[in-house]
Amino acid sequence: MYLFSIKSNRKMQLKIHKEGLVYFVSLLIITIVTLPFFPIVGLILLVITCYIFYFFRDPIRSIPIEDCIISPADGTVTYIGKSEPPIEIQSNLKFIRISIFLNIFNVHVNRVPITGVVRKIKYISGKYLNATLNKSSNENERNIVVLENHKQEFIIITQIAGLIARRIVCDLKLEQEVKKGNRYGIIKFGSRVDIYLPSSYKILVTMGQTVLGGETIISNPNNIKEITGSVKN
Length: 233
Fold this sequence. Notes:
The chain is of the alpha+beta class. It is built from 3 helices and 17 strands. The strands form 5 sheets. It has an 8-stranded antiparallel β-sheet. A 3-stranded antiparallel β-sheet has the order 7-13-11, with no helix packed on it. A two-stranded antiparallel ribbon has the order 1-2.
């Protein structure tokens, strides 16, 4: 359920994610009550309320129709390299890991990178180290999802809590069929998302690149020459 939609003349639509409603509504009520009696405090609360809406925004994205891999999150690519799967996933397969750091100004709604089936979900409690650190992949609180595509290949996505993030939300269920670009969760207040792709995949993003969840193509395993269409979601 998504509320508080805002539409512009360009038909853009901005929504607030359901996980942000309790924060937004609570602060809005407090702000309305406080503003007439304590204007300065009320203005500060108004700014915070606006930021909460901004943080939990859930913009519409153009999802590529073609069989490619899209970014699961907005943010900056901080790592690309060959990697073992997460230590909690027992597998001999080799992967390429792409780490995407989300700062407090990025959209924090996470999206499914491929069309496939959810084969495993594992939540691990842990530390709250700075999400830019490489060791946060194995030490921080995290939620691991293993997806299987139509070629019986496995793609792994890991939501990692950051320095000030304190809750990971994942809406997926085991054996659920998902479509590329579907929203599947959110990490509250700063975080990181790791995606593990088969080692044979060619990576199309670079270190330091800014990516958009649901839109940026991070791999094109079928060597598609041209993206011919997209769907709004």
